[in-house]
Every structure is written in structure tokens, then in C-alpha cells.
Amino acid sequence: MEPEMISSKCKVIRSQPVILSAILCTVLMAGAAIASKAVAVGGSPVPDSIYKVSEVTNKKQADHIVDQFRVQLNRLASVGTIDSCSNIIEYSEEASEGKDESFGAICTISSHNNRPLVVMMCNDNFVGKFTLGGSESHTREGISRFIQKNCRPGG
User: Fold this and answer.
1) Whether residue 144 has pLDDT greater than 80
2) What number of other Cβ atoms are within 10 A of residue 120's Cβ?
3) What is the chain written as a DSSP string?
4) In what order do the strands lie in the sheet with 116-124?
């Protein structure tokens, strides 16, 4: 992600509560720095055609994914708590050595000043990538693009 894009996204995020805005902006910039190094070192990303996108409909699996989001959010800082998540998506790659997967969703976070904030979250537990950011599209395709850009399995 280009510096001017990060800067403009941080300006949009700054309309949120100050502490949460700073954390979201920091996460966005750190994610962009890591992504740019990954492309420089690893070359071209794996083609999308080998990835599978599906909705998580199993309640037990959905609850586990949201619990993992909570753990990751708590590691960032105590900015608030996840109230709920919807449109939970699994973005996975089938490979000969097994399955690698990432998950994403639209989540509502209550900050300490009780102002709800709706964000996209994604997580690839295998590699340790967790990202949250603005929710430009609440559709399956929008969440899939967010996962692909920020938490692609194995990348």
C-alpha cells in the first residue's frame, strides 16, 4: 500500500475515538509495511484460483472464530470489546500438505466510551496475522477482498 493511501485511510479512521483511531492507523501502517516486504521477498502472490471462499454457518465454528478475534484484539490494546460479528467468511487454500485458512467478518466493537464501531477483521492464526480496518463493504465479496489484502492464508 502506498504511503499516500495509508495517510488518506488514517484520516478517515481519525473520525473514530482517539485511542481506537491511533491503534487502527498503526495496525494499517504496520500491515502495509509487512505486506510490501512479503511481496518483495516472496515475489508474486499465489493465484486466486486455488483459494476457496465460504460462509461460516456452523455456530460452534463461528463462536470459536469470534473468540480468536477477541484474543487478538486484546493483544493489541484494551480499546474495547467485540459485541458481535456477522458475515463470517472462511478464505482457504487446499494444498498437498493440508489446509491453510484465514477468517474474516464484520464486527461491532464497543469502545470504553460506549460508542459502537463497525470494523472488518481478519485473522490467519497459522501465520499470526490479525488485521482490523474500515468496513467499506459488508458483502461476502468485500470481506473476501479484505482477507485477501490483509490476511491471505500462508502469505
Assistant:
1) yes
2) 24
3) --HHHHHHHHHHHTTS-HHHHHHHHHHHHHHHHHHHHHHHHH-SPPPGGGEEEEE---HHHHHHHHHHHHHHHHHH--SEEEEEEEEEEEEEEEETTEEEEEEEEEEEEEETTS-EEEEEEEEETTTTEEEEEE-S--SHHHHHHHHHHH--TT-
4) 51-55, 80-95, 98-111, 116-124, 129-134
Report CA-CA distances (Å) from 84 to 3, 15, 36, 106. 32, 22, 31, 8
**Residue type at 64 in one-letter notation:** H
d(CA 46, CA 41): 14
Structural contact between residues 117 and 80, judged by C-beta atoms closer than 8 angstroms: yes
Q: Quote the crossing angle between the two packed helices 18-42 and 140-150, to the nearest 10°.
A: 60
Q: Which residue has the higher pLDDT, 48 or 120?
A: 120
Highest mean pLDDT among 49-58, 108-117, 144-153: 144-153
Tens digits of per-residue pLDDT, 81-104? 899 999 999 998 866 555 789 999
